[in-house]
Each structure stands twice: as C-alpha cells, then as structure tokens.
C-alpha cells in the first residue's frame, strides 16, 4: 500500500505544483485544475492515512486547506464571471449595462484575490506546503531525486511516469 501511496502522491504532487505558474498569472484553467488537484490530494490523504503518521497528516491537511482557500477565492469569481456572461446573453440589450457594472466589480475583486494568491505562493504557508509534501514523499520512501517536484522550491523539475 505504501508503494501505491508513494506513486499517487508523486503523480498528484507533480500535477499540483505544475499548475503554479499558470495560477500565478491568473489562468482560469490553471486555477481550476490546481484546485481540483488539491481536492484529489485531500482524498488521497484520507485514503492512505495508514501510511502516514497522524501529525504529518494533520499538517498536510491544514496546508491543503490553506491552498484550497486561496485558490477558491479566485475560482469562485471566475465562476461568477462565467455565469454573468450567460446571464447577459439571455437579457435584452437594454439590460446589458447592468451586467457590465457587476462584471467590473467582480473583475476588480478577482484581481485583488489573485494578488493575495500570489502573496500566498510567495509566503511561508506555501513554502510550508512544499516542505511538508517533501516529507511525505520521504516517509513513503520515494527518493526525492527520482520524484523531484520542485525547482528552486517552486515548480516541477521533472515527472516520473506513474502507472498503476
């Protein structure tokens, strides 16, 4: 079971940290995909709980929650903006100005939360996530040189082929 856990965490970690660059720039798909991967990692953490000590699981769970919150603030606004486009298209042209005023406010809020997301990426909480994640891989006895997820502590260096 530990080998499967190691492969799962290595693959999902490579995926997660691979979205960082796009999420930093505000790419809608990267923010969404990074958030989805975070949810998958939280499920994996639960499924492979017997492979990790309780304190390490708690720390990683907290780190995932922090990341999910930071991503969620941006993603929620993306969803609202997409819904607003659909609403605008369903309204008569005379009512489009109403939706544009709201869109301006939502885009302003999104820029603010994207700045906060980048502050998170540059801060101690994200560094803590990376450090905790590296410890998980060590505990699962996956040598870091074979599954290096970080380059300068930030992005993917390479990814092993993961097969189940």
Strand portion, in percent? under 5%
Task: Name the structural class.
Answer: mainly alpha
| Largest sheet data | none
Global outline: elongated
Give me the strand/helix succession.
HHHHHH
Figure out the total of helices.
Answer: 6
How many discrete domains?
A: 1
What is the CATH topology classification name? CHAD domain
Mean pLDDT: 87
Total strand count, please?
A: 0
Terminal CA distance reads 12 Å
CATH architectural name: Alpha solenoid
Low-confidence stretches: 144-148, 151-164
Provide the CATH top-level class. Answer: Mainly Alpha
Helix content: over 70%
Query: Quick one: CATH superfamily?
Result: CHAD domain
General description of the model:
The protein is mostly helical. The chain has a single domain, classed as CHAD domain (Alpha solenoid), CATH 1.40.20.10. It has 6 helices and no strands. α3 runs antiparallel to α4, α4 runs antiparallel to α5 and α4 crosses α6. The protein starts with a helix and ends in a 25-residue tail after the last helix.
Outline the secondary-structure elements:
Blueprint: H1 2-18, H2 20-25, H3 28-47, H4 54-90, H5 96-122, H6 124-139
Helix pairs in contact: 1-3, 3-4, 4-5, 4-6
